[in-house]
Write a structure and sequence with these properties.
The chain is mainly α. It is built from seven helices and no strands. Helix 3 runs antiparallel to helix 6.
């Protein structure tokens, strides 16, 4: 091997460590500090997903052969997705016992839902639709308040799941020859969701 070739090889190998370090820096995801608004949004949506899980758990014990059993598991998955983001950003949170909420509005919802949901199956299914209706609107609101891609991605998957859940409740409600009027979504937005096919939310 000539001295010239050896010299070139030596220069290449001597630069490798710095090149690898540079690649590591560029390939790693940047950690962007969450704003106070983003932290509040995550903590609020964690409890709102808990509202869905706890309500569906209660309603599942009252009514057999309903969507509640399957969907309540999805709500736990939604909670876990938010918890992972909170943990990644070292944000403290507390999961209260079933049926208990730190947000007064969510506590009031839960208290009313379990009373109304025990009256009849049709009311219970309407409550399920109401929760998903509320969830979609709140997720859209909080998504608009952030530029953090990690938060946007998590909220986007949760909203997708809620649209599928709303479709499921809609089918069960119509199977009973009942109807549901959206409480939070616009009528056009609601009709667009329930008249479209289920989505694949984790892809």
């Amino acid at each position: 091997m000539t001295k010239v070739k050896f010299s070139k090889l030596f220069m290449i190998f001597s630069l490798l460590p710095s090149l690898l370090i540079s690649c590591d820096k560029n390939s790693s995801s940047e950690t962007v500090a969450l704003t106070d608004i983003e932290k509040h949004s995550l903590l609020f949506m964690l409890e709102e997903e808990k509202l869905a899980r706890d309500t569906y758990t209660f309603l599942d014990t009252k009514w057999a052969n309903t969507p509640f059993a399957n969907i309540l598991g999805s709500e736990q998955t939604h909670m876990d997705a938010i918890k992972s983001l909170l943990d990644a950003n070292s944000i403290a949170y507390t999961i209260l016992p079933a049926g208990q909420f730190s947000e007064p509005a969510l506590q009031n919802y839960y208290n009313q839902f379990i009373v109304d949901g025990a009256i009849s199956l049709s009311k219970a299914l309407a409550i399920g639709a109401t929760i998903e209706d509320l969830d979609i609107v709140d997720l859209q609101k909080h998504t608009k308040e952030t530029n953090n891609q990690s938060v946007i991605d998590v909220f986007g998957k949760l909203e997708c799941g809620s649209r599928n859940h709303l479709r499921s409740f809609y089918k069960s409600i119509t199977a009973l020859n009942e109807t549901y009027a959206p409480q939070f979504l616009t009528v056009d937005a609601y009709n667009s969701i329930v008249n479209s096919a289920n989505e694949k939310c984790n892809q």
